[in-house]
Amino acid sequence: MSPMEPHIEPIVDRIRRDSFRLNGPDDLDRIVEAAGNAKYVLLGEASHGTSEFYTLRTELTKKLVERKGFRFVAVEGDFPSCQAVNRYVKGASGKPDWLASFDRWPTWMWANREIVALAEWMRGFNEARGFAGASSPSGTGDVGFYGIDVYSLWESMEETIRHLESTGAPEAELARRAFSCFEPHLRDGQSYGVAAAFFSETCEDEVVKLLAALRTKRAAAENGDEGALGAEINALVAVDAERYYRSMVRGGEESWNIRDRHMVEALERIAAFYGPDAKAIVWEHNTHIGDARATDMADEGMVNVGQLLRERHGERDVFAVGFGTYEGTVIAARAWGAPIETMRVPPGVPGSWEHCMHLAGAWDKAIVFGGDQPEFERPIPHRAIGVVYAPERERYGNYVPSVMADRYDAFVHVETTRALQPLEAEPAAGAR
Q1: How far apart are CA 297 and CA 301, in angstroms?
Q2: What is the predicted pLDDT for the residue at 185?
């Protein structure tokens, strides 16, 4: 008998009592109903390379759109890249060139077969409703797909200039001036960050002026102008990416906080575009959607999307669903920018949340937190796998102490998972 078992036995017993099996999509209905009337439903993942996390989130997304009127999906991706998908699902363009649209490493996060299937479903849903067009005050309009991350500084500037020039907007000159400030750094965020942080060669004033002008412009625009929304969000990316890269070279937690605050602001601006009653589904890693205050992130002064949304909108309007696995395979890389591999995910370490879920029954299951569950109110190690991963060393850096009932509102456990199916032309290396 493992020496950890007496310590975790009450947790395992509570999981057995409160969890329910997942034998098919219909079993997810209990999570959809538990979300109530939340405005934001946050769907996590324990890795960016696990097929079931994507497919189960797709099933939940379908139910939330069809039954509860959710209006758009916001993902941990670049706004310009995701606009190709957004236009496609709304019937405004043909099929995206996925590999061209998502060409920033790690490309597999959104250029994969699972996301293609989601996009096809969204297009079919909108088409069946007659491709209603842009958002409108009456609540009609198509379900959309948006990226809310902060990394696309140069691409966002280019998209802003392209839109302003195509509409003959006077703000185009402001945008060109801002973009020219970044040009000497040759699309290298670290180069810009060093120049800005240590030599005071910043472009902050230029992008802040541009964002202010575009906010004023969109405030006066007709509701439903996706072009104006895109220009404003891309300008917001430029402002926050400038701050992100400047902070990143200094180290510390501030760059993380800038990124997650940006994602919340972008999300809220898109929600406002859809109207005061709009509901949003967010797809991001567990480390972003699970409340940071329930982890050791809080000790380091870090905040995240889940925490910020709960603080700004109240817990009843935010419903966070964590995802995890006991073992399986995953797509990841050994170093940043390295070739992808299909790697083996080892069994959850003894005493971890993943281990407890396994001991409660070696099958897929879910649990909704709430009520009298004191066993879930103390910290327990909970696995997080990034795009860079070393399975043989995961026990030393891939487990985050978490109070599960405070971090999430529900949790989905897949006993044995499979690697995501990327669209990259180069096949993944064999499993290790």
Answers
A1: 7
A2: 85
Residue 132 burial by Cβ neighbours in a 10 Å radius (0-12, 13-18, 19+): middle
Phi and psi based region of residue 238 (left: phi greater than 0; alpha: psi -120 to 50; beta: remaining): alpha
Instruction: Tell me the C-alpha distance between 1 and 87, whole Å.
Output: 56
Locate tokens 């649990």: which residue? 367
Using DSSP's 3-state secondary structure scheme, residue 382 falls into strand
CA nearest 45: which of 327, 285, 260?
Answer: 285
Is 201 in contact with 195 (CB distance < 8 Å)? yes
How do residues 133-143 score in pLDDT, each as one tens digit? 654 433 448 99
Of 4, 2, 21, which is closest to residue 360 (Cα–Cα)?
Answer: 21
Residue 254 neighbours by CB distance under 10 Å: 16
Element (H, E) at 44: none
Alpha-carbon gap, residue 384 to 2, rounded angstroms: 23
Positions of the chain with pLDDT lower than 50, given as ranges: 1-4, 135-140, 426-432
Q: C-alpha 317: how far from its chain's center?
A: 18
Q: What is the pLDDT of residue 170?
A: 93
CB proximity list for 113: less than 8 A, separation 6 or greater:
421, 422, 423
What is the rounded CA–CA span in Å between residue 346 and residue 74?
30
Amino acid at 414: V
119 vs 112: CA distance, rounded Å: 11
Best CA proximity match to 378, nearest among 351, 357, 403, 356 = 403
Q: How far is CA 411 from CA 21, 53, 92, 101, in A?
A: 12, 12, 36, 32
Q: Is the dihedral of CA 366, 368, 374, 378 positive or negative?
A: positive
Residue 276 gets which letter from DSSP?
A: T
Calculate the CA dihedral of residues 79, 330, 393, 104 and round it to 10 degrees.
-30
Alpha carbon distance 319, 31 (integer Å): 10
Phi and psi at 90, nearest 5°, equal -95, 5
Q: How many helices (H) does the chain have, and how many strands (E)?
A: 16, 11
Distance CA 345, CA 32 (A): 29
Q: What is the pLDDT of residue 136?
A: 44
Predicted model pTM: 0.94
Distance, CA of 193 to CA of 309 (rounded, Å): 28
